[in-house]
Design brief:
By secondary structure, the protein is mainly alpha-helical. It has 4 helices and 2 strands; from the N terminus they run βααααβ. The chain has one domain: 434 Repressor (Amino-terminal Domain) (Orthogonal Bundle), CATH 1.10.260.40.
Length: 70
């Protein structure tokens, strides 16, 4: 299985836009730093397990949704 960081970033950005949230406000809701969220949005990093869990919980998706099953 491979992590799909493009899909993950797409959903993070979608939830921010739907909630009309700035990066800072969204990051605060998620429980991560704004710089981490910005790097996730720009696909510059792959989240560690804790960050991934917090983000997935925030957007209300299943963790396995963001993995390619090959």
């Amino acid at each position: 299985m491979n992590f799909n960081k493009e899909l993950f970033a797409e959903y993070l950005l979608l939830w921010q836009k739907d909630g009309k949230l700035s990066v800072r406000k969204a990051a605060k809701e998620i429980g991560i730093s704004a710089s981490t969220l910005s790097r996730l949005n720009n696909q510059q990093i792959i989240p560690d397990l804790e960050t991934f869990y917090l983000c997935v919980k925030w957007i209300g998706m299943e963790m396995d949704f963001f993995f390619n099953k090959q």
